[in-house]
Design brief:
The complex is a heterodimer.
Chain A lengths: L1 H11 L1 H10 L4 E4 L7 H6 L3 E4 L6 H7 L9 H12 L3 H4 L3 E6 L2 H13 L4 E5 L6 H22 L5 H23 L10 H10 L5 H17 L9 E8 L6 H8 L3 E9 L14 H12 L10 H13 L4 E7 L3 H18 L3 E6 L6 H16 L3
Parallel strand pairs in A: 1-2, 1-3, 3-4, 5-6, 5-7, 7-8
Helix pairs in contact in A: 1-10, 1-11, 4-5, 5-7, 8-13, 9-11, 12-16, 14-15
Chain B lengths: L5 H6 L4 H6 L1 H10 L4 H14 L5 H19 L6 E5 L7 H8 L6 E4 L1 H12 L4 H9 L10 H11 L8 E4 L6 H13 L3 E3 L16 H22 L5 H25 L8 H8 L1 H4 L3 H23 L10 E4 L7 H9 L3 E5 L17 H11 L6 H12 L6 E7 L3 H18 L3 E6 L9 H21 L1
Parallel strand pairs in B: 1-2, 1-3, 3-4, 5-6, 5-7, 7-8
């Protein structure tokens, strides 16, 4: 599809575009994914947001070992590897990095980069329980982020600017949601690898251009005449699906599976909810980003997410679930132990659990397990 | 009358009449724990070989841990309400519950996994089946899951400890503890209180902090107090909190005395033995407050005599190190520090606190406790933890640091390498990093650690000689 090709090319040339923006005096603001950093604040400050969402690269994980123990989440070790290398072009272009602190893994990232690099690292806390107090603390964090961005850019983040940015980001979320919902059909018009790619692009590509392309894509998809598929429909869920970590989706597709919906803490931007446009903007952001979204596995308790996955599995009529988490992300590992029992009880579905340390040596074993799982689904009466 | 457990219990400081009086309880507990005559023999041998049982204080300390084990195992049968708290505990919370209760016997409040470390680990060397059960029931091996939580999970699954009426999760420090509590809540259905916090201070902030951190953690603590009132009708206020400190006062005073004698040269007690007293205040709220305090007082008197006589566990002028943590289960590791000729006058948990900055007038009990937690460092941030150690080192006369850390504890793993860099730069003290497991000796090789510690000791000796 034309729009997909265009978005892909925008992604490929984004680094050079960022450097050009920087030369023009724009501030480039990096943030760590997970859905708790509102890009709206950066846009309203007149700066350029860019998500540090790359992964899948074992060499970055190896670089990190001199700076942090291996017993931390693979994605965060990879970020440390990129960050401390001193040569990574995405980290080099940043004027500041915002790190929503969700657990010890990204706390390590924040501390190691603050200690070992000249990068301006700004951590802010994400409470682990949904409550009025938790909302209050998150809102306080956003207030600090806003002040920091104003200091970096020299621009005031006024309510008007913020409202405009919210409107823009809402449009992007609506389009992503519309595309995702099309996959409920018997013959989904877009492959998971393309949906994941556009989702990643929405965290990196310039916002206006991205929205224009998503708009075009929606029109193309509405008019598309997808072929008939009889491949098992799968939900793919887990901790992190980074840009560059293509292995899992490719293996599923080449084994004859069809991922029709994804849910990840890092790597799939939450697109189900829009931010209310008539409320006080900062409060509205806090409500949508913290209270309304389905919390990831590290929340305590984390059962909301498991109920949500069961709803997604039903809504998208899936035949099975692939749970993919990275090594040493303990919250996902623990839920992967008891979720299959819940899933089976509620839906009769089975689940395949896979883990990765971005090590190429995993591929063969992972491929065998996926093939076997898909075959077992096919043989189900 | 001699029974299959008399020898072990006598070695552990039990008096004959105590064994007779408690016969029923002891046998019921051992039956639940599936500990038989063969286990007692192994334990008796281990106690004789691995601990300084020439000292009555050490024998009694071992006995206190066995009594704590009996208490937790029998708590439900004895009609107590049961509250478990995670490790590391929020200081004094358990004791405050005891202080607020109608009688101290009304509740069992403690950290059963710590009690199991000290008994099934240190004394019986029989933790493996419990760990394996914990692994099989959701805390899988090979994923750096906390072995302390595996012990709790395994002991619950094997029905060695009763289900609690409530569990207080360590959400203020650790990510894995509360998730493991969630897993156990799913499996067993008991209520869990999550006391949440966000360790989000930027590098370099301690001892300062964003006051909102104190408000948030304070509200969480106040919420816990409210839940305790709603569920158990116990009210924790400032007076109760003060009283709770008195419950542990005698124990802390005795520990302080021991600490003072540990600074002597030669150091009069080894790591395997100091470990036995360290966790009384962290894992227990029961008999350890009285009989534990008595054991530590006796120990302090015995150490005083050793110091006066110049008796030490390593030669005088041996290199002195701060050992970050002792193993809670493995006296073999704890002993090898002394075997390579290193004296340990201090461990991290027993380091004296640096002077605290002036307090703000926070209005609620929860906020006051939260503020103290910020000053303590570990609940503030990685930087706070490291600086707290750096500040405390000013009061410890050491030649080097062994920072051995729990490989499966994310908060410790977060900062291990930064800690070494920072402390070496700021204090000039050589620092050895050791990745190990305090709760599961299957996860490291004591021989490999020995090689590294020996080399470190040799370097310290050479450095000392050159000076």
């Amino acid at each position: 599809m034309e729009a997909i090709r265009h978005i892909r090319s925008l992604l490929a040339s984004r680094l050079s575009a960022l450097n050009q923006e920087k030369l023009k005096g724009k501030k480039i603001i990096g943030y760590i994914p997970g859905g708790y950093f509102p890009e709206e604040l950066v846009l309203a400050a007149g700066a350029v947001p860019v998500c540090m969402i790359r992964g899948g690269d074992h060499s970055a994980v190896e670089t990190a070992i001199a700076y942090v123990d291996r017993w931390l989440d693979t994605f965060y070790r990879a970020q440390i590897g990129y960050g401390v290398s001193g040569v990574d072009p995405y980290y080099k272009v940043l004027d500041a990095l915002f790190v929503p602190i969700t657990d010890a893994n990204n706390r390590a990232l924040s501390d190691v980069l603050a200690y070992h690099t000249p990068l301006d690292v700004f951590p802010f806390g994400i409470p682990h329980t949904k409550s009025e107090d938790g909302y209050g603390y998150y809102l306080h964090g956003l207030t600090k982020v806003k002040a920091k961005l104003e200091q970096i850019t020299g621009n005031d983040i006024t309510d008007e600017r913020l409202a405009k940015a919210i409107e823009q980001c809402n449009r992007e979320r609506e389009l992503l949601k519309e595309i995702s919902l099309m996959r409920k059909s018997d013959n989904p018009p877009i492959a998971s690898k393309d949906f994941v790619m556009i989702n990643h692009a929405s965290m990196i590509v310039e916002k206006t251009t991205m929205i224009e392309n998503l708009d075009s894509l929606v029109r193309e998809l509405r008019n598309a005449k997808p072929g008939v598929h009889d491949r098992p429909r799968l939900m793919l869920t887990g901790s992190t699906l980074a840009m560059g970590d293509h292995k899992i989706v490719e293996l599923i597709e080449s084994a004859g599976g069809n991922v029709v919906v994804e849910d990840f803490a890092e790597g799939i931007k939450p697109y189900w909810n829009t931010v209310p446009e008539n409320d006080a903007p900062l409060n509205a952001l806090a409500k949508t980003y913290f209270m309304d979204r389905v919390a990831p596995a590290w929340f305590r308790p984390g059962s909301e997410r498991l109920d949500y996955l069961i709803r997604l599995a039903r809504d998208y009529s899936v035949n099975g679930v692939v749970w993919y988490h990275l090594m040493y992300r303990e919250s996902y590992k623990m839920q992967s132990y008891y979720f299959p029992e819940m899933l089976r009880k509620e839906t009769g579905l089975t689940m395949l659990t896979l883990e990765s340390d971005y090590d190429p040596a995993e591929t063969g074993q992972m491929s065998t397990r996926i093939e076997t799982y898909i075959e077992s689904i096919r043989r189900q009466p | 009358m001699t029974t299959y457990y008399t020898e072990l219990l006598t070695l552990c400081g039990f008096k004959e009449d105590e064994i007779t009086r408690q016969k029923q309880r002891i046998e019921t507990a051992f039956e639940i724990l599936q500990l038989g005559p063969e286990d007692m023999k192994i334990a008796a041998e281990r106690v004789q070989n691995r601990f300084d049982i020439e000292l009555l204080g050490i024998r009694k300390a071992l006995g206190v841990w066995l009594k704590e084990l009996f208490d937790v195992v029998l708590a439900r049968k004895e009609g107590k309400k049961i509250i478990y708290f995670g490790y590391p505990p929020f200081q004094y919370t358990g004791l405050a519950i005891k202080a607020a209760a109608k009688s101290r016997d009304e509740f069992y409040v403690g950290c059963p996994e710590v009690v199991f470390c000290q008994t099934f680990g240190q004394i019986f060397n029989k933790l493996t089946p419990i760990l394996e059960e914990g692994e099989a029931k959701g805390l899988a091996p090979g994923h750096a899951m906390c072995s302390l939580l595996q012990i709790k999970n395994g002991a619950l699954a094997k029905k060695m400890i009763p289900l609690p009426d409530m569990s207080i999760a360590t959400s203020y420090f650790c990510d894995m503890g509360p998730k493991a509590d969630e897993l156990m809540q799913y499996r067993y259905g008991y209520p869990v209180i999550y006391v949440d916090s966000c360790l989000d201070s930027p590098w370099g902030e301690w001892p300062n902090f964003d006051p909102e951190r104190v408000h948030y953690l304070g509200k969480q603590l106040n919420g816990m107090f409210q839940s305790l009132k709603d569920r158990f009708d116990i009210e924790i206020d400032e007076t109760v909190w003060k009283n709770s400190r008195f419950l542990a006062g005698r124990l802390y005073m005795a520990i302080d005395k021991v600490n003072e004698f540990l600074t002597a040269d030669p150091v009069p007690l080894g790591v395997a033995d100091t470990e036995l007293i360290m966790n009384f205040p962290y894992g227990c709220t029961g008999i350890a407050m009285d009989e534990g305090a008595e054991a530590v007082e006796i120990l302090a008197d015995e150490l005083k005599r050793r110091v006066e006589q110049g008796i030490g566990v390593v030669p005088k002028s041996a290199p002195r190190v701060l050992l970050a943590f002792q193993s809670l289960v493995d006296p073999v590791f704890n002993q090898l520090i002394g075997e390579v000729g290193l004296a340990v006058p201090a461990t991290m948990t027993l380091l004296p606190p640096p002077p605290f900055p002036k307090s703000h007038p926070y209005p609620t009990l929860g906020e006051k406790r939260a503020e103290k937690a910020m000053f303590g460092g570990a609940y503030h941030s990685s930087y706070g933890n490291i600086k707290r150690i750096e500040e405390s080192l000013k009061f410890a006369d050491v030649d080097g640091i062994i920072y051995n850390y729990q490989y499966s504890c994310r908060p410790l793993v977060c900062n291990s390498k930064l800690l070494k860099l920072h402390l070496e730069k700021e204090t000039g003290l050589p620092t050895l990093l050791l990745d190990m497991d305090f709760y599961d000796d299957r996860n490291y090789s004591a021989a490999a650690l020995r090689t590294r510690i020996e080399a470190f000791a040799e370097m310290l000796r050479a450095k000392k000689a050159a000076a």
